[in-house]
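R.M. (postdoc): so does anyone remember the format we settled on? I'll just put the structure tokens first.
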């Protein structure tokens, strides 16, 4: 990882936050999502396939992550950019080790992000004082600066600088000096991180399926798709196209059944 790559990733750590200069819709709800964030990191690092693989695992593991009110239990954006970026910096082709590094870096990134959120919320109190002073002195420019400029400056400093420090002191220095963090990680820790990551991914998938399974027949449909991929070796795209065809046929049968029932009811009423 070069210094320029670290700077770009740290910049997106800020842009993918709530209240960044690009707004919440583009920032937190798009740039801050693991799949989008990992794709961006993959472009910056020049390894999109591996980046998306890591991002998918983070996306599945955090499907149940919510931010009620001002409470941030886990900074998903920070964790993804730092986790995927740090793992790609030391990627040598050993995918289990890369995944373990991704979980390790994402834990550091997510915890740092939560700490920075609390710091941002505290420092943002100064924006209220500045805005109040602008209102008292009838200074609209000072009010605008408090709402637009000062808040973004605080957010930028609290997110960009820590992310840059983490990446430069680990990924940049390590990759350019030839020192690989993976060399000092014992095998039992690598195995533990992969098991933990697999459990989190399974938990996220379970949460997703709990929203999709409304009837018992839905479980059967899911198992059919699972067996088509696992035992028949079909690709996800092939199974998806097959599912679309089955859904259209199912919809046509239900529509024909409803139309037939409507006509029978109309005949009974006329008779």
């Amino acid at each position: 990882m070069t210094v320029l790559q670290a700077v770009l990733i740290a910049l997106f750590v800020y842009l993918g936050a709530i209240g960044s200069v690009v707004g919440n819709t583009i920032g937190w709800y798009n740039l801050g999502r693991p799949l989008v964030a990992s794709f961006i990191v993959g472009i910056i690092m020049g390894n999109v396939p591996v980046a998306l693989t890591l991002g998918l695992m983070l996306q599945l593991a955090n499907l149940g992550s919510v931010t009620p009110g001002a409470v941030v239990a886990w900074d998903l954006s920070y964790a993804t950019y730092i986790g995927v970026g740090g793992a790609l910096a030391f990627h040598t082709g050993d995918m289990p080790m890369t995944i373990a590094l991704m979980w390790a870096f994402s834990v550091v990134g997510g915890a740092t992000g939560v700490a920075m959120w609390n710091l941002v919320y505290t420092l943002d109190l100064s924006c209220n004082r500045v805005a109040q002073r602008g209102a008292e002195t009838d200074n609209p420019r000072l009010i605008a600066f408090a709402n637009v400029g000062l808040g973004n400056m605080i957010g930028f400093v609290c997110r960009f600088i820590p992310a840059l420090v983490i990446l430069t002191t680990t990924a940049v220095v390590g990759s350019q000096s030839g020192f690989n963090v993976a060399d000092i990680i014992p095998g039992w820790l690598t195995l533990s991180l992969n098991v933990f990551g697999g459990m989190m991914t399974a938990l996220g998938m379970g949460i997703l399926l709990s929203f999709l399974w409304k009837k018992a027949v839905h479980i059967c449909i899911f198992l059919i798709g699972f067996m088509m991929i696992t035992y028949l070796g079909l690709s996800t795209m092939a199974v998806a196209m097959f599912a679309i065809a089955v859904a259209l046929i199912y919809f046509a049968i239900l529509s024909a059944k409803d139309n037939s029932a409507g006509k029978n009811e109309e005949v009974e009423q006329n008779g």
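R.M.: ...and that's the designed sequence above, right after the tokens. Also worth knowing: The chain has a mean pLDDT of 80. Residues 3-212 form one domain.
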